[in-house]
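User: Hello, can you help with two protein structures?

Assistant: Certainly.
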Amino acid sequence: MRRCGLGILLLGCAAPVFAQNAPLSASGLSRWKLSLPVDANGDGKADEVANLRGYANPPWFHATPEGLIFRAHAGGARTSGSTAYARSELREMTAAGRPAAWDCLQDTRSLSLEQTLLATTTAKPEVTLGQIHDARSDNLMLKYSGPADANGRTDSGRIELLWNDAAQREVLDAAYTLGQPMRVTIAADHGTVRVAYRNLVSGAEKQLAAHLAPAGIAGACYFKAGVYIQACSKLGSDGLPNVVCAKKGWAEARYDAPEAYAEVLIRQIDLN
């Protein structure tokens, strides 16, 4: 494996050449488990799927000729009673099938994605497209934020990197239009995270280093990818109130309808 700079795998010099690879299928997700925005067994929590080989649950997760679709809606089931938001999101696992847990400040890990944000909610058009998470919260997020008058299909917004529980942030792409594929590498090395971003249509690109604050880290870290919408409805698709969402106290126009959704296509994913 070739590395650049501070021993970090960077998109511009050593990231996988995704264009030469076949689109991602569920069989290529052996080191991930999936959280869905549905509660099929009625236990009050979002369903999780550990073995994704051959798995599909459209429209929330399914294969297309271009790659894998991930969709989450504002009224979807949530992973716990403390979160307002639904997700169709991958969580990093080990080769042995256990939850990955690496040292945020000592280990070296990288995640590379080729993905396209296809749709967003409209009242609050915000979507997280990748994370480094620890035992308590997100240390680093790749996030899209759309315009106030979003239609959710053809908007232009910004792609940002947020880290240290969103205390720090920087814009990676100030004019990202829905439907444009992007390549992103997130490479962590001893508490420094180098991120390389490129919009494959506009050519916009940026590289930056984010330094994780030791005081803000709780336990071990792991990667997440897919759709984690930052929008919700006061009433879930199950007809029950989303109390956490209602407590946010937004203006009514900021609450989405339960069926409003965000969707991302992941063409390639590479974990090291």
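That covers the first. Now for the second protein you mentioned:
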Amino acid sequence: MSSAVVFAYHNVGVRCLKVLLASGVDVRLVVTHEDNPDERIWFASVRQLCLDNEIPYIAPADPNTPEVESRVAALGADFLFSFYYRNMLKAPLLQAARRGAYNLHGSLLPHYRGRVPVNWAVLRGERETGATLHQMNVKPDNGPIVDQFAVPILPDDTAREVFEKVTVAAELCLHRSLPGLMAGTAGHRPQDLSQGAYFGGRKAEDGRIDWRQNARRIHDLVRAVTRPYPGAFSDLAPGRLVLWRTRVIDDATPHPASGTLVGRAGRIEIFPAGGGILRVLEAELSGSPLTAVDHASRLDGLHLPIPD
């Protein structure tokens, strides 16, 4: 029987930990996170899964301490796995497993290395992403690839919808690769790092809409940061507009009304300065739901804030 120490959080952490348990892996310790009280917790709990299965777990603020490193090393596990664990793991932890440390990353590496890869892929209008199982080293997301599983991104998919697909892709990728890892026969192919780049974390302020972009780019931002994330927003004369759902009527064609918001015929449509037409399907204005019937006349002809 193979043994493992697992660093895990979020839905990917839960599903992949279940794969290990179903495959008979002896999970000797799980390292997870305390939930952040300022974060909306919409995902499954690794801690609860550990409680349900009587698996020892800890949730240190920093895993790279002598105490945690010593505890992990003393377990003598075959493998270390990281499944959507949020902290970087340093060399003493990565070297503690006798047969290697492996991470499941939510993109098709080497693309979208780093933070929040699903949100970045949606924001940048990608039509495909997936999950990658790779060997870990001290530099994040650049170790040899064991396996990948791709999923489509449809034009109106939100980041949460894509994340749900990536969670399944991660589970399937691990399930397919685990027998080879345990048998010592799994292939490892180096990444061509020139084909991708690193991306950083995102803040709520990054959802501010740049109306100089075209309708398609703005739509991609909306679906990348819609619920459960803070949303795409713009500060207009009547108050803060938050867009939760939109539809692209035209991608980027210049229009006489470019740079304005139009309310008419029971619809609210936005004509960005970058071209195209964006129909508002769900939004808030100053914290209240925005409806075309109530606000069409109030907003009709409103000029969008466009930096010089």
